[in-house]
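Researcher: We're reviewing a set of sequences before deciding which ones to prioritize for further study. For each one, I'd like a predicted 3D structure that I can look through quickly. This is RNA 2',3'-cyclic phosphodiesterase. If possible, include the structure in token form so it fits the rest of the review sheet.
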Amino acid sequence: MRSFIAIPVADDTAKALAALQRRLAVGRPLPRDNLHLTLAFLDDQSEETLEALHEELQQIRCAPFALSLAGLGQYGRAVHLVVSDTPALTALHGSIGRAVSRAGISLPRRRFRPHVTIIRLKPGTRLRRLREDVAGFRYEDMPVDRFALYGSTLHPEGARHDCLADYPLASTARNETGES
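Model: Here's the predicted structure for RNA 2',3'-cyclic phosphodiesterase, in token form for your review sheet.
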């Protein structure tokens, strides 16, 4: 199954991003359910491997935190908002990378560039024209209180993401029954 680990975008943040998508009025805005910050793209994985990963991800402890989104970027045809550097996000990303490795999944070594994709562009559309439309856009204090394991199915109209497992953030240790 094609899968990835990501931070879902909270409802209030999604509303602000939908308004930005309307202001840009180009390309294909990503639907609400597809707005996320990818922490690890896992590509195709077996059900057994995802079960092992699930066990590892359940062990991660991290206190909830907030992120800031500011500035547009573009990777190919994807327009995204850049996520400001946040030590808590860097630590969570590292913990997830170690859990992925313990589950037997090898990830390509890439620099972590956190972002939230908001629009898919048509070929030939230039981001340079778009920057003026959103000059000064910032979204402060996007709450991060969970991350999730997603399955992704490709369709002609775009990918559909299904949450396979949700991992609430909490800094407290759980007892043997899984309770806090």
